[in-house]
Task: structure prediction
Amino acid sequence: MRGARVADIGAGTGIATALLSARGAEVIAVEPGDGMAAQLRRTLPEVPLVRGNGNALPLATSCVDLLTYAQAWHWTDPAHSLPEAARVLRPGGALALWWNTDPHDVPWITEQARRIGRHFGGVYDNRQGSPGYTAPHVFEGVPAVPEHARRTVRWSRTVPLDTHLANLGSHSLFLVHGESAADAFLARERERLLEIFPTGLVEEVYDVLLIVATP
Ligand SMILES: C[S@@+](CC[C@H](N)C(=O)[O-])C[C@H]1O[C@@H](n2cnc3c(N)ncnc32)[C@H](O)[C@@H]1O
Result:
C-alpha cells in the first residue's frame, strides 16, 4: 500500500480515506456532498479533496493504482461509473468496493432489523444471504470477480448507545420517513437496547463484503 496512488470515491467524512492514508498510500478523496466534504476537510486537512462524483470523476486518465468505494458504489450509475473507473485506473490497477452487512447470527441485530421494518412498514434487511437482501445490488454493474477477489470479514466495535442510535438514524430509510417517525423509533429503541446493554455500550457486529475488480 505504501506509495500507491489511491482515489477514495464517495469518501464521506473520510473514514476509509484516513485508514488508506495511515497505510502509506497517497490518497486523494472525491466527495459530492457539502456537509461530508466539510467534515473531511476538518478531520483530514492534509488529504487532497476534490468535489465530484463517481459518474464523472474529476480525475485524469490513468492516474491511480487503486480506486476505492467504501459503501458508496450504490449511489452511482454503473453505466457511467464503471467506464470512469476504467479510465482513471492505470493499466493493471484495481477497483475495490466494500459494504457492511448485518450478520445473521446475532439475535439483537436481527430483532432490531425486524422492528425497523415493522415501524416503517417495509423490510429493513441488510443481511448477506437473507431473503430480502441480495448483496450484489451494492456492487451493481461490476463484472463478476473470481473467488480469490472477494472476502467477507467480520468485525465489531463497541460504541456508546448514542453513537449507535445516531448511526442508525443517519440511514436513508430514517431520513426519508421524516424526523418525527425516526425520533419515535429511536426513543423506543433506546429503551430496548438499554435492557440488552445496561452499561450503555453497544457491541455492533458487521460482516464487511469486499470485492476487488479489474475493470
Ligand atoms: C454511506 S456514505 C460512505 C462514506 C465513506 N466512504 C465511509 O465509508 O464512511 C456514502 C457516500 O457516497 C457519497 N455519494 C453520493 N452519491 C455519490 C456518487 N454519485 N458518487 C460518489 N459518491 C457519492 C455520499 O455523499 C456519501 O459520502
In short: The two ends are 20 Å apart (CA to CA). The chain has a mean pLDDT of 91. DSSP finds seven helices and seven strands in the chain.
